[in-house]
Amino acid sequence: MAAVKQRQNPSLPQPAKHGVGAGTMHRSLRLAQDGRGDTACEITRNGLERQCMGARKSTPGSLEIDPAFLAQLREHVGARAIERGIRCLRSHQNLISHLDPSQENAARLLAQLAIWTDIGFSGPPLRDILQRFEHLQPGLRSKLSIADYICLRMAEGMAAMAEEAMETAIAHFDFVLSLQEELDDRFLLAIAYYWKGRCLRRRGEYDEALIYTGKGKELALALNHPRMAAVMQVLESWLLFQQGKWKEAVRLSQSAENTLGETDDYVTLGNIQSFYGRMARREGRFDKAVEFFESAISHYGKRDPRHLNLARSLANMALAKRGIALQLQKRIDRDAERRRKTPASGDGKASGSSYDYRSRLAQLRREALEHLDDARAIYQQRPNHHGAGTVYLNAAYIHLDGGDFQRAEEEAGSAFEVAEQKQDYILMGRARILQCMIENAKVEEEIGGGADPGSHARRAFEFSQEAIDLAKHTQHHLLLAHAHLWQGLTQCNSFFDNPEAARVSYDLARTSCGVNQPDNNMWQDLQTLGARILRKGSVHPALKAWSQGAVGDKTFRQISEEFAEIVIARVWEREGRKVSRVAARLSISPKKVRRVLARVGRRKPGAR
Cβ neighbours of residue 285 under 8 Å, at least 6 residues apart? Predict the structure, then answer.
């Protein structure tokens, strides 16, 4: 995509000094401890003239922090001139390594270090520098100016976010945003809004995350930093994607890609490619997804060959290759079924093409596990609970596909344990769904029933119920839909054989999807559950209720729409799944048939 040429930013004003002269009105901070141990800040407004720090002098032997240096760092952030910014920081390595909290502008430099650490600067650990501020002389921290203290809280929030302590990070950013008038620094406010949006996204609170990300983007644009705004727009596009607004999400991503195309912001450019890959994977275009993930890995590697996002793309690529493997497995199964039905055509042995498919299948699974091993190695060097949990989860899927239930169970259990340490509800929910799938596979294979043949079925149901409860802590609608779906498949298994309950779960799964398009595997699972319910031949409970006049609080139009969904889906099955036949049989347009079938999960949206 052609990149949009970046307009040169005007010179940024130098940050105001924190010190105040004699006779100047200044508000100070009084720190106290609340009941939870969190630092609370009370701003004195009693009209007294106080000097908080005065014009601080550097301690003997320390280097001064030039405001021009801080302005330069901001300018590089706004222009997304990443390498220039990192070189600028490295040229001041001695200053950073010996940063003295009592120096003038020390807190502002700390805030910039937090921003650049997030971008990719690998200087002294941010937590180590923060400890210097935490061990200030008694009374010195309480005399920090408002602007200094807000900068300190920004850095503490970033450190908490990096440690995946999202609740703690959000508390810091909320404090910063609550004092935006006192801070009067729209640049830092834009970053605070964006960082809070990222925290909310990790917690699965997508609606709120979109609001805060949008506010950050608006501030960046008002500051004439379109490239900085484009970074926030990438997160915005992902959140829209989660809400089912695919077209708008793609448009925003392409716009951000154009804006950042001439920069060396390789991490954000990699994030865009990764986003395209996840969209392609959800649509079932696995070969294309692999290409996008390879492109993302290439971008991340330009910044850091051990970048955390690179590990994430390796894990995503493993899932894409798993998708290709599943398609091959279905083709192998179809060929085997065809040979069984036509024994006269051969001796029952696998053909050459079938052998090639099996060889390719084994290769794909091997490559997927290798990608996960590479990702795991990165997470061992740079611990990240969500990433490590995802690796466990994806490995469990691959082992389950290969029939290794024990390895799958171990990996899924590890994924849940890692996620539970950080109360990562999304990952915990995914792990419970996978554990439900493993237990159902044991039911179908009649493995390990022993004296209690229903033990695996009951465990599967318990896992599905827990997955539903976990998903309800988030706004991840597809996660909730997936949990309901697998509860329905559990209710339909050979032990429970309860189609009425399964139908309720099926309806809840469809409702939870809303406007969100399920991925290829989930869509096929919806088809499987719908077909099992239909084969049972039971009367739809809604039809039973309506025949008795029980319509609840539904309007006639709502009843008509639900009736159309029930009838069209069943006629479609009877007419050999041919849309044209259904349209002719019911005298309605093929377009309406397709729309209804897509809504009930029987056909993909846009399928012919």
Answer: none
Whats the size of the chain, residue-wise?
608
Contact in structure between 136 and 149 (CB atoms under 8 Å): no
- Taking each helix axis from N to C end, the angle separating 308-341 and 266-282, rounded to the nearest 10 degrees, works out to 20
Farthest CA pair distance, the chain: 104
Give the contacts of 143 (CB within 8 A, at least 6 positions apart).
Answer: 28, 29, 52, 53
User: How many CB atoms within 10 Å of residue 24?
Assistant: 11
Q: Are 368 and 322 in contact (CB under 8 A)?
A: yes
55 SS3 class: coil
Chain center to CA of 36 = 30
Helix 590-599 to helix 556-574 angle, to the nearest 10 degrees? 100
Look at residues 218, 220, 165 and name the one whose alpha carbon lies nearest to residue 187: 220
CA angle at residue 2 from 269 to 283, to 5 degrees?
A: 60
Q: Could you tell me what percentage of the chain is helix, strand and coil, using 3-state DSSP and rounding each to the nearest 5? A: 70, 0, 30
35-47 pLDDT, tens digit per residue, is 333 333 333 333 3
Q: What is the pLDDT of residues 487-514, one digit of tens each?
A: 999 999 988 888 889 989 999 998 898 8
Give me the residue label for tokens 């010996």.
98
Which pLDDT value is given to residue 102?
84
Which residues make Cβ contacts (< 8 Å) with residue 481, sequence separation at least 6?
508, 509, 510, 512, 513, 516, 518, 522
